[in-house]
Amino acid sequence: MASAPLIHARCGYSPRFSSSSNRRNGGGGALGSSPSSSSSSSSSSCCSSSYLAFSSGAYNCWRNQGLRAHAMTSQGNFASSSRGVASAEKKPDHLLVLVHGILASPSDWTYVEAELRKRLGRSFLIYASSCNTYTKTFAGIDGAGKRLADEVMQVVQKTDSLKKISFLAHSLGGLFARYAISVLYRPTDIPNSPLVNSKATHSLRRGKIAGLEPINFVTLATPHLGVRGKKQLPFLLGVPLLEKLAAPIAPIVVGRTGSQLFLTDGKPEKPPLLLRMASDCEDGNFVSALGSFRSRILYANVSYDHMVGWRTSSIRRETEIFKPPRRSLVGYKHVVDVEYCPPVSSDGPHFPPEAAKAKEAAQSKPNQQNTLEYHEIVEDEMIRGLQQLGWKKVDVSFHSAPWPFFAHNNIHVKNEWLHNAGAGVVAHVADTLKQQESSTLTASL
């Protein structure tokens, strides 16, 4: 990609890092800084009500499977709340939910689970979600998000020692998790308080997720802005004809999820789901739910990811893309850059009349000009909404790996033997979670 200056200068702020040394030299401070709070303007409501309920069939299908106990403590499988009750100090108090991506299953997390158990200790209950396996990921981000929310509540209700919650999600699973936390979110501000009645920032509006204190929300190669647009779905090679054909074909191949990822879901006058998920609206308090977490972290492949582009996974505009460093951070191979982007004040995303017209044109006559105009409007509005929160952005480059084109699966070591180039990324994730856990414990003393 062409080198371009970062947006920071335009926005009037400078990134903060965990070390006084230059962050691009591969030296210390690999984990970067982790914000304890962020400030932004309240997001304005941008959509009409379309809150879908579970279909009883999908719900019963999942319930019949039971909770597949990919929940693990540092001692091994966590099969039920009755196990490990002999010693109170061994009970985990921090639930870490792992959420896989499209056409995947909990087995994708085998390596990550083992590493996290070794590095995080006894306080974490690690649970790999199993409610959206394989073709269930085609049923829509909203449907999958609601199933995930229900599954998390089942785990929480069976484990009375839990006090905190974090999410680690790969690819499409990051969007499922974003929807799920909006379902699980409950504000804890005192009604009629000055904080609630004022235009307070999302991160200052404290809340609980599934009744627990939200700590970390981490995504790995997640298409936060969808996959429409130049090189957002890299295996199309940025060829305009292929990108034009992909949008109408996607719903046929991957169902409702495809139309939502290409931003063509719903009627022309209604904002697409991903735009609604960049705001607080009648569908859910999406931004407030994200803002309730102490830390929001994006891991993004800068190249060689055939499924998810750099911009959409790191929530960046084209003008914010820069030439990434090629040297890995010390101790974390293939992790090349860490930066903290503070919140940008705005009145949230909108869906102006010209966007509705562009959407209608993109749906009915999907030529290159129509789709480009629509995507540019919606992408900018999604970024405007999500940048109301502070994010830590971790850039990953597998350019020196033996099989760099496996980047999308390398980033979470889907298979220990085939994708082990991502071991340094998993180590960085684990140490980041551990660092945040330590700071949380220190703050509570």
Q: What this model shows, in words?
A:
This protein is α/β, with parallel strands linked by helices. The protein is built from 14 helices and 13 strands. It has helices spanning 8-11, 56-65, 110-120, 141-158, 173-184, 194-197, 240-261, 273-276, 286-291, 310-314, 353-364, 368-386, 407-410, 423-444; strands at 71-73, 76-77, 94-99, 124-128, 164-170, 185-187, 207-209, 213-220, 280-281, 284-285, 295-301, 335-341, 391-396. The strands form 3 sheets. The protein has a 9-stranded mixed β-sheet with strand order 2-1-4-3-5-8-11-13-12, sandwiched between helices. Strands 6-7 form a two-stranded antiparallel ribbon. Strand 1 and strand 2 form a beta hairpin. It is globular.
Instruction: List the uncertain runs.
Output: 1-30, 32-88, 193-200, 235-239
Strand content: 5-15%
Instruction: Write down the overall mean pLDDT.
Output: 78
| Largest beta-sheet details | 9 strands, mixed
Q: What is the β-strand count?
A: 13
What is the spatial order of strands in the main beta sheet? Answer: 2-1-4-3-5-8-11-13-12
**In percent, how helical is the residue content?**
25-40%
Number of helices: 14
The end-to-end distance, rounded to whole angstroms, is 47 Å
Shape: globular
Radius of gyration: 21 Å
Structural class from helices and strands?
alpha/beta
N-to-C order of helices and strands: HHEEEHEHEHEHEEHHEEHEHEHHEHH
